[in-house]
Design a protein that fits this description.
Blueprint (H helix, E strand, L loop, with lengths): L3 H4 L11 H14 L2 H12 L2 E2 H8 L3 H13 L3 E6 L2 E6 L2 H19 L6
Antiparallel strand pairs: 1-3, 2-3
Helix pairs in contact: 3-6, 4-5
Length: 118
C-alpha cells in the first residue's frame, strides 16, 4: 500500500492537518459561502479598495459592505489600513487569494460548461 503522504492531495501541507486546522478551514469556507462576501474577496484579490469602491463594484449597499468587511476583518481574512479618514482594505495573504480564484474558476467551468482540468 502506498505511503499516505505520497498520495495526499494537498502536497503543500507540511503534515497531516489536525482537527483544529479542519475547524479553522471550515470557518473560512463558511465565510466564503455568502455571495456578497465572496464578491468582496474577489474584488480585493484584484487589489486593495475602500468601502465606497467595493460597494460600487459589488452593487451592494455601503452599510452591508461595511458589515461584511467587519466580519471578514474579525476572521483575519482582510486588513484595513488608514488613508486619511478612510479605510482601505486588502486580503491578508496569498493563500486566501488563491482559494477565492480557484473557487470562482471552478464555478466558471460549472456554469459555462467549459471542460474540467485534470
Amino acid at each position: 500500500m502506498p505511503d499516505r503522504e505520497s498520495t495526499a492531495p494537498a502536497s503543500g501541507l507540511h503534515h497531516a492537518p489536525s482537527g483544529e486546522q479542519f475547524t479553522a478551514a471550515a470557518s473560512v469556507f463558511a465565510l466564503l459561502a455568502d455571495p456578497t462576501r465572496l464578491h468582496l474577496l474577489w474584488e480585493l484579490a484584484e487589489g486593495e479598495a475602500d468601502v465606497t469602491a467595493l460597494a460600487e463594484r459589488t452593487g451592494a449597499a455601503r452599510p452591508a459592505v461595511s458589515q461584511h468587511l467587519a466580519k471578514l476583518r474579525l476572521a483575519g481574512l482582510v486588513q484595513p489600513r488608514r488613508e486619511g479618514r478612510r479605510a482601505v482594505y486588502s486580503l491578508t495573504d496569498g493563500h486566501l487569494r488563491r482559494l477565492v480564484v480557484e473557487a470562482l474558476s471552478r464555478a466558471d467551468h460549472q456554469v459555462t460548461g467549459e471542460p474540467w482540468h485534470a
